[in-house]
Structures are given as structure tokens and as C-alpha cells.
Amino acid sequence: MNAPAPFPYLNSLYEKRDAQAILTDLAHANGWMLDVDGCLVKTSKAGGAGGKAIEGAAQLLDWLRRNERDFVICTNASQRTVATYAAHLRDIGLDIADHEMMTAATAAGDTIARAQPGARVLVVGDEGMIEAVRSSGLEAVPPDTTNADAVVVGAADNYTSANLNAACLSITDHGAPCTPRSPRRGFMAGSNAALPCHRPLPGPLPR
């Protein structure tokens, strides 16, 4: 039996392909990856903060559950914990469990854990990155550690000079690879933290 298409309003977005064919493809996709900002939530802040659910977003999530589709909710935010982001989405009417969310911090933690299992990681960021590092089986070292095995950079309201200095020394003197939240070398977009991230982990960075 054909599953009903969850996106009838997408018709106007496609002019060069048959709309029904597109909707059919979407309806039969077994796995879905949905971004928060601009896809489920209208907001100008990372992770859906301060925003409101886009019309049809709650119905889409309900459709995915009823039709037993696998899905993950993604955000490139890293400052807060997964539980905090998921709780906010539930508060604005989106039924999303904590385990159904993936952040830039959890992606970074998983990437480092695969490349350096059990590594001692210096976090330049906030609680979201620290929790993600620990949840990945890694050790989050004190913020002034100058000989960390790896450095990971995430968003934060403030950064201390001691933490930034420790990160630079871990990278330049100890040879620690650096994983920024953004793939741009030497600058963590959206955080005002500049670090010499010239020794990245092998393989693609999480996006």
C-alpha cells in the first residue's frame, strides 16, 4: 500500500520535476534526517532557540512515527546539551525524544572516539560539548590542560584566555588534532574562538 505523501505543500517548490514523483519518492524513503533551523523551526538562533514550529512540522513527525520511518533530528548547534535542545522542541509542540537528536557536539564526540578511543580531550566550548565528549567514552580534561590528546571547539558565550592558551599549546606543542564545529581551518564559525586547527583528525569532519 502506498503511504500518503507528508509534504503536499512541496508542490510549489519543484517546477522541473513531476511533483507527484517527488512526493512518492519522499513518502517511500525509509530514513529521514531533518535539520532543526529552517526545516522544523523558524528561528534565527542555533538549535531552534527562541523559535516556533514551522507549520506542518508536528504533522510530519507524527506521519513518520505512524509509518514507522527511521529519523534523526539534527542541528549544528553545540553549546547546549541534547536534552536541552530536545526539551525546547517539545515545549513548542514537536514530539522529539532526547535520543532522536544529534548535535554538532555529539557528531564531534563520535568522530574523535572513532579516531582516538579513550582520548583525553580538551574542550573549548560549553556544557553541550563537554557532555558529548563524555558520552562518547572520552575524558574531558580540565580547561587549562596543555597536553591533551585532542582539542574540540564548540560554541560558548565566553572563552577564557587560559583555555585558549591550553588549546593552542596542546595543538602546537603536543601535536593534538583539533576538531572545530565548523570545517573551516583556524576559525570556529559562530563562536569568536580562533585556534590553529591545522592538525585535524583523519577523515571528514562532522557537518
Describe it.
With 207 residues, the chain is an alpha/beta fold. Helix content is 30%, strand content 15%. A 4-stranded parallel β-sheet has the order 7-6-8-9, with helices on both faces. Strands 1-4-5 form a 3-stranded parallel β-sheet. A two-stranded antiparallel sheet has the order 2-3. Strand 4 (70-75), helix 3 and strand 5 form a beta-alpha-beta unit. The chain starts with 18 loop residues before the first helix and ends in a 27-residue tail after the last strand.
Core attributes:
alpha/beta; three-stranded parallel sheet; disordered C terminus
Distance between the termini: 36 Å
Q: Spans of 5+ residues with little confidence (pLDDT < 50)?
A: 185-194, 198-207
Tertiary shape? elongated
In terms of quaternary structure, what is this? single chain
Taking strands numbered 1, 2, ... along the chain, how are they ordered across the largest sheet?
Answer: 7-6-8-9
Give a short account of the largest sheet.
4 strands, parallel
DSSP strand count: 9
Instruction: Supply Rg.
Output: 19 Å
Mean pLDDT: 82
Helix content: 25-40%
Number of helices: 6
Tell me the series of helices and strands, N- to C-terminal. Answer: HEEEHEHEHEHEEHE
How much strand content do the residues show?
15-25%
- Structural classification: alpha/beta
Short description:
With 207 residues, the protein is of the alpha/beta class. The protein has six helices and nine strands; from the N terminus they run H-E-E-E-H-E-H-E-H-E-H-E-E-H-E.
Per-chain topology:
Blueprint: H1 19-27, E1 31-35, E2 41-42, E3 52-53, H2 57-66, E4 70-75, H3 82-91, E5 101-103, H4 104-115, E6 120-124, H5 127-135, E7 139-140, E8 150-153, H6 161-172, E9 178-180
Parallel strand pairs: 1-4, 4-5, 6-7, 6-8, 8-9
Antiparallel strand pairs: 2-3
Helix pairs in contact: 4-5
